[in-house]
Amino acid sequence: MRNIMVSVLIMPLLLGPNVLQSDADPESRDMFLEYNLLDAVALPNDGVEYITDSDNFPVLNIQKEADIKTPYRLILPERLNDFQISGIMRLESLAGGYIFSIVNPLETIVQLGVHLSPVASDFMNITLYYTDPSYDSSRELSAFEIPYTKEWFNFAFKVLHDTLIFYLDCEEFSSAKIKRQPTILTFDSASTLFVGGYIFSIVNPLETIVQLGVHLSPVASDFMNITLYYTDPSYDSSRELSAFEIPYTKEWFNFAFKVLHDTLIFYLDCEEFSSAKIKRQPTILTFDSASTL
Ligand SMILES: *[C@@H]1O[C@H](CO)[C@@H](O)[C@H](O)[C@H]1NC(C)=O
Ligand SMILES: *[C@@H]1O[C@H](CO)[C@@H](O)[C@H](O)[C@H]1NC(C)=O
């Protein structure tokens, strides 16, 4: 993603029942602090520069090739209870991408992050990723569809005990009930904070469009999902045509997807395992001529 940013802040909130315990909380001294994720930017960095906006205010211009990452511990506290994420930015492309993400050491799970989808019909989804430690893959806590704008905008997510409030341009835009277990987010100590354009292949399949592909999820309780990606040309991001949960095995196995006009049949070890009705439009898959396998 290419964009221009003024700030991306995380602020612990002094709200809820924890207020009373704050004296006992070793991190209570952090309560009034705010953490600016753009402190992760070390210059010089190819693809990042300070420019001045129309008010002569210095802002960060982050290009697609920018690779901004740092151990999260240099910027953020170890734990977050109730907190707010806010940012001021201007989009320079319609491609979407992560505004920031805090990713586990294996770079397989986004523990906390904000993602913008590609713009479609002048709208985009802004998604808060928030993954409880018991999850094996990144979890979208909530997503909000917001109008695309070429202008500066600011957004904020207020993450409370069981409620998420989303603000757009300082007004409450929407809210959602959420479940966090536990309600304190503790980062893996060797996690990495990424800001802006960095494209990491495992966590971020949305950055590029998979026209056709087969994906295996991480194994969980001896099962895994095998997913067929099949993206009609009208889609702006990769589309899962269908997924099947199959038993994990250490042995050889074979699989087959039979993609018919409006039916997908999945075979495991030469036996029909399951099938699904599908919609393909058009029913002929035409690859972009410069595609990569
Ligand atoms: C936003 O997400 C919803 C739900 O997944 C989807 O129906 C909608 O098309 C998305 N909008 C954009 C602009 O991507
Ligand atoms: C497979 O996908 C389904 C639906 O998203 C999910 O409920 C299930 O937990 C997944 N299983 C594994 C092993 O990832």
Automatic annotation (TrEMBL):
InterPro entries: ConA-like_dom_sf (IPR013320), TSPN-like_N (IPR048287). The keyword Repeat applies. SMART domains: TSPN. Keywords: Repeat, Signal. Residues 34-218 form the Thrombospondin-like N-terminal domain. Residues 1-24 form the signal peptide. The keyword Cell membrane does not apply. This is Putative thrombospondin-like protein. The lineage of its organism: Eukaryota, Metazoa, Ecdysozoa, Arthropoda, Hexapoda.
